Structure prediction request, 315 residues.
Amino acid sequence: MSDTTSEAPKLSWWRRLSGGLKRTSTSLSTAVADLVTKRKLDRAMVEEIEDVLLRADLGTDVAARIADAVGAGRYDKAISADEVKRVVATEVEKVLSPVAKPLVIAATKAPFVILVVGVNGSGKTTTIGKLAARFSAEGHSVMLAAGDTFRAAAIEQLKVWGERTGSPVIAGAQGSDSASLAFNALASAKEQNRDVLLIDTAGRLQNKAELMNELEKVVRVIRKIDPSAPHAVLLVLDATVGQNALSQVEAFHRIAGVTGLVMTKLDGTARGGILVALAEKHKLPVHFIGVGESVEDLAPFTARDFAEAVAGIDR
Prediction:
């Protein structure tokens, strides 16, 4: 009996994930099936398969490697679409395995301070709410800090998540100083013996200098209370921006010293392969991925599940 219950959530996450990545896997598998059913494998077909992979935003290096793996030992033979899918899944998993790392909340560092960064519209504030729900469900006591003080909507949204998850929210008026808010939040979290403090931040990347100064100030003041904080800097990325995500990682990594990634909105794009390109290029840990609106649609990242869902493999 216990086996079935432990399997049930896994299956439902697989269904969510494969459903969420449907647009990516369908565009890949349809294009591949069109190619392989017509003729035997030759150099031209391998190049066409590489183009299909590039269009899914897998990145040039990965696309070339997968195409080579498809061609290896198979020239002048018929190849099925399923064989190509299997090669895609295997090669994608190889790229993703090294970055699929859980976010570990170290009990020795309470409150464990997580600074959440990302451009406006990436799903940052919603992700904080979903993480608060996840950590609370795991038995951690959580506090939220509404550090995106420029957007009244972000402050209100965080308060709603605070109510929903039973987590206190430290917030100021719109336009108030985000660094002093972060300082007060950490002081309160320490006082209340909270396990986790999630700090939202502004995301106006178009003015990098201002954003950099603000984030540096936030880090500087929280280190006055805890020199080891922040213990994690999570960058939230919206999968629908495709290649643009690569430059966001570069900018935020430089500005804020990103320690891990969360990718949202994978269900809204046919270019979910961008996560593979990011893993290949930046090698940053990927902690969570999101494939929808509900709390259950954000889950820890696993390389094999993602690789098989992108390739359109049925289970």
